[in-house]
Amino acid sequence: MIIIMLGAPGTGKGTVAALLEGELGYKQVSTGDIFRKNIQEGTELGKLADSYISKGQLVPDDVTINIVASRLEEPDVQEGIILDGFPRTVAQAEALDDILAKKGKKVDMVLNLTTPEEEIIERVVSRRICSNQQCKTVYNVVMNPPKQEGICDKCGAKLVQRQDDNEETIKSRIATYMEQTSPLVEYYQNKGVLRTEEVSQRINHLGKDVADEVVRDINK
Ligand code: AMP
Q1: Which among 88, 123, 128, 136 is annotated as catalytic?
Q2: Digit-coded pLDDT (tens) for 153-171
Q3: What is the pLDDT of residues 49-68, one digit of tens each?
Q4: How many domains in the chain?
Q5: pTM of the entire predicted model
Q6: 216 labelled catalytic
Q7: Strand partners, 85
Q8: Pick from 13, 50, 104, 215: most CB atoms within 10 A?
Q9: 162 is catalytic
């Protein structure tokens, strides 16, 4: 089963994807995480990615598509995958369709998350992430703080703030989303695989609720 997480930054794609991975057993594959790991390790890919990510821009399509194409060959994702943050452009979506078609597969569900912009900004600036690559649990210092400040409840590693989680960069990330990624809503709507869910404190509908509803529907 191929599931795609779509939505502006800070809508909860990573949180919902992690919950779905736990419930459904399909791997969550986040292109953002792959880039951040490469930045941390100082690889050539990391240096290239960093020059775009720090400005709130997208890493070029050819680079990103190649990474996902080779990840899709690995044995642990043959039964299913939850793509978190890919595709982000129509060119990426078309490339993904071609790659999947060659394997006799297709995109089964696109989970499109929406959140009011004020809430996105609030959420992103107070987001902290576990620095342990195997854990990566996401906290919010206001809404969902760890028991001990700066320390992950689950594994005890240090919590860090993403370098692009600041008010200035989030504004360009939202603009990039509107320009380059939002056309995918129509793209997948036309394919009949789009499911849109609002994730918002305002209506008391959070990532956990969305994940529960999706799992319930898939297991029906
Ligand atoms: P994320 O962790 O999904 O918020 O991604 C962090 C940053 O990585 C984005 O703001 C982009 O700069 C870059 N990135 C992640 N996924 C993609 C993608 N599919 N295409 C291009 N750039 C990406």
Answers
A1: 88
A2: 999 999 999 999 999 999 9
A3: 999 999 999 999 999 999 99
A4: 1
A5: 0.94
A6: no
A7: none
A8: 13
A9: yes
User: In this structure, how many other beta carbons lie within 10 angstroms of the beta carbon of residue 155?
Assistant: 13
Residue 103 domain boundaries: 2-115+166-218
Cα–Cα distance for residue pair 144/158, rounded to 1 Å: 16
* First-last CA distance in the chain: 15
Identify whether 173 is a catalytic site residue.
yes
Q: Domain holding 21: CATH number?
A: 3.40.50.300
Task: Say how far apart CA 175 and CA 211 lie, in whole Å.
Answer: 27
The response to whether residue 123 sits with its C-beta less than 6 Å from ligand 1 reads: no
Q: Is residue 67 part of a domain?
A: yes
Q: Are 135 and 155 in contact (CB under 8 A)?
A: yes
Residues 6+ apart with CB under 8 A from 151: 157, 158, 159
Is residue 147 included in any domain, yes or no? Answer: no
Shortest-distance Cα residue to atom 6 of ligand 1: 32
Query: In this structure, what DSSP letter does residue 6 have?
Result: E
From CA 27, how far away is CA 74, in angstroms rounded?
Answer: 11
pLDDT of residue 143: 87
CA 163 to ligand 1 centroid distance, Å: 13
Task: With CA atoms as reference, report the closest residue to 6 among 155, 128, 181, 218.
Answer: 181
Annotation says 128 is catalytic? no
Asked if the structure places residue 158 within a domain, the reply is no
Looking at the CA of residue 57, tell me the nearest atom of ligand 1: 12
Q: Is residue 90 part of a domain?
A: yes
